[in-house]
Predict the 3D structure of the following.
Amino acid sequence: MSARLSEYDYVLPRELIALRPLERREDSRMMVLHRAEPKIEHRQFRELKTFLQRGDLLVLNDTRVLAARRFSDDGTVEFLFLERIDRGRWKCMVNPGRKMRVGATTKIDNVCSRVEKITADGERIVTFDKDVDVYAGGSMPLPPYINRPSDESDVVRYQTVFAHVAGAVAAPTAGLHFTPEILSGLPHTFVTLHVGPGTFLPVRSENVTAHRMHAERFSISSETANNINSARRIIAVGTTTLRALESARQTDGKILAQESTTDLFVYPPFTFQVVDVLLTNFHLPRSTLLMLVSAFAGREFILRAYEEAVRKHYRFYSYGDCMLIL
């Protein structure tokens, strides 16, 4: 077991962080990891179908990213709206936090807001004088490492082509490579997990077992559950899909239709009961997502693959290339 945070680190040149998507979604490179050998191949995402077998089923996350980033009318406070609690009350993240202590006020759309409470996680409960459609003037909440304002192209490209159920503040990025044409030629079904801000939060403890994940809402329909339970192999498209599926597994090994939440933290060692193959992007050093893929493929194999990805100039993170772990 590798429980030290420092064991999930690697060096990434900043120029390999993809700040913009490729012109075409399907042009991403795809590193293929064969766990049994182990062996690494370098392919293109459009070749995904050649790795599928009879009875395989792709499971994708159809959450839709909300335009959840707003600024105060004077431009001095940035809000990331996470959840509507009730009329005129929201849970949000703010920057800079020092300007928004309990009792602090500001305006959005000329409506006064006040910090009612600061949660243990540093989030703010904000109340408005009247109900405000915070998404109407919002922008796409790009990850912090994409250090530029979002623009009109991000409205389309920081969203999967199959996004359907609104509720996320981050995209399920493994799905960004799919086009309608590619998806239509593959056996697939959908779950919904609304990606929360926890996907960006750093692990602060050197002992990773002390880290706690934020709970995220997910749902699995009866049709999806039936499709999964009758498939031969399950290919999870993205870590969010994997976490939803492994959280939904019942004691008999079946997936049950449900609406629930998960705070599942996957790190080595972890016994995967549902997912057989994982399609995922390249993740940040020292992150919970890197720990998840390390649990799936082995930490040493993953770190060797990441070193090779750096040498071969793969594009990293949300708008970057992908990895298929067989």
